[in-house]
Amino acid sequence: MKMKTLFKKDKTKYSESLNGYWEEGYHYYVEIRDGAMTVRDYRREIALETHISYDADRLERGERTVISTEDSVLSRDGSGNPFTMIEELAYENGELKLLYYYTIMGETLYTLKKVPCGPFEHIIIRDEEYLPRLQGRWVEWSKNGKRTDSLTIFGDRLTIPGANRVQVHVVSYKYDRDRVYIVPANLTSSDFGAWTQIEVLPDMLTTRMIVFDASVPLSVFARADMLDKIEIPPAAKEPIRSTMTHIPGKMFMPIGFKPEPTAPEKKEKKEKKEGAACCPCCGFELGADHGKFCPECGSML
To answer: How many CB atoms within 10 Å of residue 131?
Structure first.
C-alpha cells in the first residue's frame, strides 16, 4: 500500500526571461530570482525585498505581463506612512516597466533593461568626449522671457541654482549609449539637491526640479545666443500641477500641506453633452484628450 504524499511540491512556473538583473540606469536596479525580487536604489542599498507572482506562460508568449508584488512600498515617512512605492510592474517587449509613485512628485515611469551582472556596472563615463563642449554658462529658458537663472560648467565642476558647486561625470549606459546625462561624480549621492540628473540634448540641457507639493515643468538650459533658436520640448511648456493625488484607500499630504476649502459651486454650469466624461470632483466636462488630471481642479481622473 502506497503512502499518500503529505506535502505537494510547488509547481509554480517561473520564466528564465524574467530571472536576472534589470537596471534603469541611475535610480533603480532590480534582481529577480523565480518568486523573489530585490530592488536597490541609487545608493546600491536595498529598498525592497518581496515575493512576486505572474503568468509565466503569458510572459513567454511575448505578451505584456503584469507582475504582482506582495509588498510595493519602497520607503516610508517619519510616521511610517508609505512615501515612495511601486504602483505597477510589468514585463513588456523585453523590458520591465516600473510605474513609480512619489507622494511629492506623483508618478514616474521607469524602463529597466536586462543586464548581465551587478548594479551600476554598465555606466560609461564619457567626460573626455562631452565635457569640453559643455564648458561655460547655460541660461534657463522661461515662458515670460526672464532669463536670470543659469547653469555653469568649468572643468568637471557644475554650479546650478539651488545646489552647491559639485564635481560631475557625463555618462550614458551600455544598453542606451545615445542618452547622455550629467550626474554627480559620486554616483551614490544626490548632490544636485532639488534637481534630478541632467540630460544632455543637442544645444540644450534639460532637468526637472522637486518642489514640495507640485510637479513643475521641465527646465531647459541653453547658450544665451541659442535661446530663441532651439526647439523647446513640450514638457517645458506644461503648467505647474498639484501632485497630491489619491491612491485608493490612501490620501497623502506632505507635512505643512493644507487642503483648500471646498470651492463653492458655480452658479452657471454649461449643459453637459450626452455621454461626455466629467471630473468626479468638480464636474468639469472633459475633452477627449484630457489626460490623467482634471484641467479645472487638478484632481487625478
So the answer is: 17
Residues 139 and 108 in one domain: no
Do 173 and 277 lie in a common domain? Answer: no
Positions of the chain with pLDDT under 70: 1-11, 26, 43, 118-120, 146-147, 162-163, 188-190, 194, 210-216, 241-276, 280-284, 288-301
Q: What are the DSSP calls for 264-282, one per residue?
A: PPPS--PPPPTT--B-TTT
Identify whether 171 is part of a domain.
Answer: yes
Name the strand (E) or helix (H) holding 132.
helix 127-134
The span from the CA of 201 to the CA of 220, in Å, is 10
Q: What CA–CA distance (Å, rounded) separates 122 from 55?
A: 29
Phi/psi of residue 132, each to 5°? -60, -40
Cell numbers that stand for 127 in this block: 567626460
8 Å CB contact between 101 and 84: yes
94 and 128 belong to one structural domain: no
pLDDT of residue 45: 80
pTM given for the model? 0.54
Q: Is residue 257 part of a domain?
A: no
Question: Are 159 and 140 spatial neighbours (Cβ–Cβ below 8 Å)?
Answer: no
Instruction: Tell whether 108 and 133 lie within a shared domain.
Output: no
CA distances to 11, 153, 233, 285, 290 from 158, rounded to whole Å, are 54, 5, 23, 46, 39
Residue type, 270: K
CB atoms within 10 A of CB 185: 16
Of 60, 93, 115, which one is at a domain's C-terminal end? 115
Q: What angle do CA 244, 247, 253 make, to 5 degrees?
A: 35
Place of cell 509554480: 12
Please report whether residue 2 resides in a domain. no
- Final residue in a domain of this structure, among 241, 257, 284: 241
CA dist., res. 201 & res. 221, Å (int): 10
